[in-house]
């Protein structure tokens, strides 16, 4: 697996985050637009900074509220997409993460939303960028991973894949059996976060109370073993939005996060070993 971390997981400045991430042993990062906006310099300088730490920027995120917007505004939203793609390319990112829309004016016609995302995929392909589509647990139309998978399947572009997020699925106590039938090569990214069980607004829960694997209540191994059984060996990325973690030393959080991500992967491999052939478990 390719172990990654989202920059939002850590507090501090971007150079402090990069230093902590490199020291912890992560191979790649998801770069947040907010980190780019707070950095004093163009995207190319962030790429150079990452290079000095031996870090690869694999993912740029998030791109929000694109599909299904009013037809008279589509050109504007396509321009937004093109700007994000230009930035992703300048950063050297391979993947632009697109969240399912939460826009109040988005249309319910799935054919329209699929057509919009197909156009996005084609524009991204021209820039040499892949698109990862994620169902937010509060998305207007796509709030379950199965909804996002249906969209990905209909868009039917080689550079348009599915993003799975353990929080969005496990917070909703979603049925996971469909994960067994999703081909590994259609999954662009798996984001990992634990969380304590809470009774609160899901947006607040997601944005303030996630935690590192093993520090919460979610069955992360039960989630991860399904795509791993199908041969997924791609990006496995910590995406932990936590008020507490953001006040801690970024080096300490990154080191603890790397250990917890490795432990999750290894425990999942051990569980699968009893029922899966060695060839399928090999990296």
Summarize this structure briefly:
The chain is of the alpha/beta class. The chain is about 45% helix and about 15% strand.
Q: Biggest sheet: strands side by side, in what order?
A: 1-2-3-4-5-6-7-8
Number of strands: 8
CATH architecture: Alpha-Beta Barrel
CATH topology: TIM Barrel
Task: Give me the strand/helix succession.
Answer: EHEHHEHEHEHEHEHHEHH
Low-confidence stretches: none
Average predicted local confidence, pLDDT? 96
Please give the alpha-carbon distance between the first and last residues: 7 Å
Mass-distribution shape: globular
Q: Fraction of residues in helices? A: 40-55%
- The DSSP helix count reads 11
> How many separate domains?
1
What is the fourth-level CATH superfamily?
A: Divalent-metal-dependent TIM barrel enzymes
Largest sheet: 8 strands, parallel, barrel
| CATH class label | Alpha Beta
Estimate the strand proportion: 15-25%
Helix vs. strand class: alpha/beta
Radius of gyration: 18 Å
Q: What is the fold's blueprint, element by element?
A:
Blueprint (H helix, E strand, L loop, with lengths): L1 E5 L7 H11 L3 E5 H6 L4 H10 L3 E8 L10 H18 L3 E5 L10 H17 L3 E5 L10 H11 L4 E6 H5 L16 E6 L9 H7 L11 H10 L5 E4 L11 H24 L4 H4 L2
Parallel strand pairs: 1-2, 1-8, 2-3, 3-4, 4-5, 5-6, 6-7, 7-8
Describe the model.
It is a single chain. With 283 residues, this protein is an alpha/beta fold. It has a single domain (2-275), classed as Alpha-Beta Barrel (TIM Barrel), CATH 3.20.20. The chain has helices at residues 14-24, 33-38, 43-52, 74-91, 110-126, 145-155, 166-170, 202-208, 220-229, 250-273, 278-281, and strands at 2-6, 28-32, 56-63, 95-99, 130-134, 160-165, 187-192, 235-238. Strands 1-2-3-4-5-6-7-8 form an 8-stranded parallel β-barrel, surrounded by 5 helices. β3, α4 (74-91) and β4 form a beta-alpha-beta unit. The protein is globular, with a radius of gyration of 18 Å. The model has no long low-confidence stretch (mean pLDDT 96).
